[in-house]
């Protein structure tokens, strides 16, 4: 068969050029050269300026040829308007089947579009999404639906009248129900069909073209005659009406007038019609599914990063497309070393295998929210040259039992297929809570089946599968013990809040990453010292808040004061500029905060190294606080709290209440709500957990109540002795707090000048700090009662008898 047999019918071609003559050359095995016969010049060549689009609706049999080539010759306009040489020719080569043949169906599923030709380049055709083609396919789908509806109406055309002629010779007219009753009562109806509230009737033969007496009848007859004359070859008229639901059908009158009536027989052709209708709708649904590639299969949770061909399209990167590495992680050096070892094993497994070592099956990252668990996992994904599958444990939980276990199987099957690979499950406690003990309130079959499947998959790895599971949680105490045993999660990596050195490293990472311009007075070490207890996420937010504050003030650099304000925002909330205290409330809050400052300074004078008051404010904060006393932490990190320091903190917390009692003669306010709550919590822990009570001794009340630390969940029966112990704890807590309040009262009474002077200045200025504050605090004296209370020399924790 010659190449002439493979030709294109007249088609429309759009080429990226002007005044081009286009010739299509077909060849077999690419043996036909350009400008050689057989050549067929295509008609209807419409030219666009910016792009070339091929709308090939012809019958080209691309399955039987190797390809075809377009040779376009002619002048091409340049930007300056000058034409190039007419002898310039360009070729665009199309691979077999790329024009929409069956061999390329799989590629079309990636997106709806066309093959586009760029005449300015020598590259092969590229597939680009075309919205017009998408609209055409939607229109074709609507056309298919219309064809199906028309076919169904043809198969089941309606309800014929008894003994009626074919539908093509019948004209249906809709009339009011009152007209139907009038015809029945006047004996003018010959046949009636009742289908629920829908009624079709035919008049007697001598009335089909006759005159009606009533005006409405005359109008209907005139309309009927005009329709009968206009619609040929209609032979008769059938009237339709709808019966109101609260009116009965006049069957008695029909029997009296000998009217033939009945209901439609829906069984006629029922099987054939139903079968054909079902086939048509199934064909329509199949066509839609095939056209739009709709899939109802359950998606496996998790997205794959770092395929060997690059990062998959399903993953999300940062806005700039950055990849997080271990260089972006600071403050958690021990955890980073553990994960670096795992990445190294996946990169160079021979170094460990020859020594008989195997990689850990799983690594559990445990830490408070914001300590960097997910960040470490992202760093592993950025460092590892193996597929990294990440998902959340909540993706496994479904309404239907069994879906969670199925998704776990699919996830691990995907990981084994991509091995060596890493699976990261965030918030794993969502599906891995303990099945026994106090954490099992009610039975949950779905979660238990998911957990069982997870245990099986983690324990069913081959030693050579090289699939490692990373888990992250902030509630390791609720996890099932079977999940934590060696062979599943071999390593548990604890991520704690960073120390001063770690905070400084984290701040440097965020400052350098954001390229933050810092003023000369900013020293990262000072900021790290004033952020004791901050997590990595808190520090990242701190740097961002400082930059926002500087930008709000139109600064070109970020100054130290911006970081200090950002720290205060994180600790106490945002200052409310529009909400201010008025009247007596302003004076009460000012004396309250002055009381905290006076008592706190007295405690710091007896305990060197304690934080000192640096700032007082009575501007309301967004966190609900009406006042704010800021005591920045010391330069060193503290991990232990001694008994005298604990008692000193209790006295400081109750200093505001003591100042209100002294200044306002016992007329206290509710402003000490948060102070009392924090002091009560601290006193209870000192007695019930820390064992700092001389009366109760070193006893952990919570462990005693839970029946030990075996985590069996069994509770000790609530007996008489246990009730007495709890009552004794409550009495000790109350006595300790009462003693702390009495000591705070003695300090306030010993410094009336400082309390009143500082309170008045704070009431006037609303904010006191720096030297203005320190000149008052240098006058504070500490009474003997404070030293006695902090040393704990009294035999019982009864209220101290003060001399004043």
Automatic annotation (TrEMBL):
It is found in: Plastid, Chloroplast thylakoid membrane. Its main location: plastid. Its cofactor is Zn(2+). GO terms for cellular component: chloroplast thylakoid membrane. It is a multi-pass membrane protein. Pfam families: AAA, AAA_lid_3, Peptidase_M41. Keywords: ATP-binding, Chloroplast, Hydrolase, Membrane, Metal-binding, Metalloprotease, Nucleotide-binding, Plastid, Protease, Thylakoid, Transit peptide, Transmembrane, Transmembrane helix, Zinc. InterPro entries: AAA+_ATPase, AAA_lid_3, ATPase_AAA_core, ATPase_AAA_CS, FtsH, P-loop_NTPase, Peptidase_M41, Peptidase_M41-like. GO terms for molecular function: ATP binding; ATP hydrolysis activity; ATP-dependent peptidase activity; metal ion binding; metalloendopeptidase activity. Residues 74-115 are annotated as: Disordered. One of its GO terms (biological process) is proteolysis. Residues 77-86 have a biased composition (Low complexity). It comes from the Eukaryota. In the N-terminal section; belongs to the AAA ATPase family. In the C-terminal section; belongs to the peptidase M41 family. HAMAP family: FtsH. Probable ATP-dependent zinc metallopeptidase. This is AAA+ ATPase domain-containing protein. It comes from Vicia faba (Broad bean). The lineage of its organism: Eukaryota, Viridiplantae, Streptophyta, Embryophyta, Tracheophyta.
């Amino acid at each position: 068969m010659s190449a002439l047999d493979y030709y294109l019918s007249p088609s429309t071609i759009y080429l990226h050029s002007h005044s081009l003559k286009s010739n299509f050359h077909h060849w077999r095995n690419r043996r036909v050269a350009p400008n050689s016969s057989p050549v067929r010049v295509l008609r209807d060549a419409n030219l666009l300026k910016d792009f070339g689009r091929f709308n090939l609706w012809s019958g080209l049999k691309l399955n039987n040829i190797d390809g075809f080539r377009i040779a376009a010759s002619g002048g091409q306009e340049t930007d300056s308007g000058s034409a190039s040489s007419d002898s310039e020719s360009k070729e665009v080569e199309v691979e077999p089947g790329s024009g929409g043949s069956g061999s390329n169906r799989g590629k079309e599923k990636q997106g709806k579009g066309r093959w586009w030709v760029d005449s300015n380049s020598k590259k092969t055709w590229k597939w680009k999404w075309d919205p017009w083609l998408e609209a055409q396919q939607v229109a074709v789908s609507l056309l298919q639906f219309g064809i199906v509806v028309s076919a169904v109406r043809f198969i089941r055309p309606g309800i014929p009248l008894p003994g009626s002629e074919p539908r093509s010779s019948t004209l249906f007219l809709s009339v009011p129900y009152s007209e139907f009753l009038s015809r029945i009562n006047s004996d003018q109806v010959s046949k009636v069909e009742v289908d629920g509230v829908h009624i079709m009737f035919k008049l007697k033969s001598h009335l089909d073209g006759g005159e009606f007496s009533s005006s409405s009848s005359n109008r209907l007859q005139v309309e009927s005659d005009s329709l009968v004359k206009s619609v040929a070859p209609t032979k008769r008229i059938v009237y339709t009406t709808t019966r109101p639901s609260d009116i009965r059908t006049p069957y008695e009158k029909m029997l009296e007038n000998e009217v033939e009536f009945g209901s439609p027989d829906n069984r006629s052709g029922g099987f054939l019609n139903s079968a054909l209708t079902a086939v048509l709708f199934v064909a329509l649904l199949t066509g839609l599914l095939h056209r739009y590639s709709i899939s109802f299969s359950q998606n496996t949770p998790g997205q794959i990063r770092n395929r060997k061909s690059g990062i998959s399209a399903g993953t999300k990167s940062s806005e700039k497309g950055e990849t997080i590495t271990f260089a972006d992680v600071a403050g958690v050096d021990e955890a980073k070393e553990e994960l670096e070892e795992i990445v190294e094993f996946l990169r160079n497994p021979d170094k460990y295998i020859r020594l008989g070592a195997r990689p850990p099956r799983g690594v559990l990252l445990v830490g408070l929210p914001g300590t960097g668990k997910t960040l470490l996992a992202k760093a592993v994904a950025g460092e590892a040259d193996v597929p990294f599958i990440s998902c959340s444990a909540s993706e496994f939980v479904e309404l239907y039992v069994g879906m969670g276990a199925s998704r776990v199987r699919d996830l691990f099957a995907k990981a084994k297929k991509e091995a060596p690979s890493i699976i990261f499950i965030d918030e794993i406690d969502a599906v891995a809570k303990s099945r026994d003990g106090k954490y099992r309130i009610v039975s949950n079959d779905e979660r238990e089946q998911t957990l069982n499947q997870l245990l099986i998959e983690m324990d069913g790895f081959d030693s050579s599968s090289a699939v490692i599971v990373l888990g992250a949680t902030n509630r390791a105490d609720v996890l099932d013990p079977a999940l934590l045993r060696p062979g599943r999660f071999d390593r548990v990596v604890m991520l704690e809040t960073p120390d001063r050195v770690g905070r400084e490293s984290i701040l440097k990472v965020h400052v350098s990453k954001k390229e933050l311009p810092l003023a000369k007075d900013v020293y990262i070490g000072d900021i790290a010292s004033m952020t004791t207890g901050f997590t990595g996420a808190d520090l990242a937010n701190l740097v961002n808040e400082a930059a926002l504050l500087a930008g709000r003030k139109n600064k070109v650099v970020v100054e130290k004061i911006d970081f200090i304000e950002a720290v205060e925002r994180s600790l106490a909330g945002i200052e409310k500029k529009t909400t201010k205290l008025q009247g007596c409330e302003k004076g009460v809050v000012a004396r309250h905060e002055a009381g905290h400052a006076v008592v706190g300074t007295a405690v710091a004078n007896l305990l060197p190294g304690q934080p000192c008051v640096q700032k007082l404010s009575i501007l309301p904060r967004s966190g609900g606080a009406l006042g704010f006393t800021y005591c920045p932490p010391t330069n060193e990190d503290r991990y232990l709290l001694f008994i005298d320091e604990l008692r000193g903190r209790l006295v400081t917390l109750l200093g505001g209440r003591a100042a209100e009692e002294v200044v306002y003669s016992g007329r206290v306010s509710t402003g000490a709500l948060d102070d009392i709550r924090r002091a009560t919590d601290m006193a209870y822990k000192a007695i019930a957990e820390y064992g700092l009570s001389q009366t109760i001794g070193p006893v952990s009340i919570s462990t005693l109540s839970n029946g030990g630390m075996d985590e069996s969940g069994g509770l000790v029966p609530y007996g008489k002795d246990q009730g007495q112990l709890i009552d004794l704890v409550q009495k000790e807590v109350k006595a300790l707090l009462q003693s702390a309040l009495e000591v705070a009262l003695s300090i306030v009474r010993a410094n009336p000048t400082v309390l009143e002077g500082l309170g008045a200045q704070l009431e006037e200025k609303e904010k006191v700090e720096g030297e203005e504050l320190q000149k008052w605090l240098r006058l504070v004296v500490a009474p003997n009662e404070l030293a006695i209370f902090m040393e704990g020399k009294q035999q019982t924790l009864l209220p101290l008898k003060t001399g004043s």
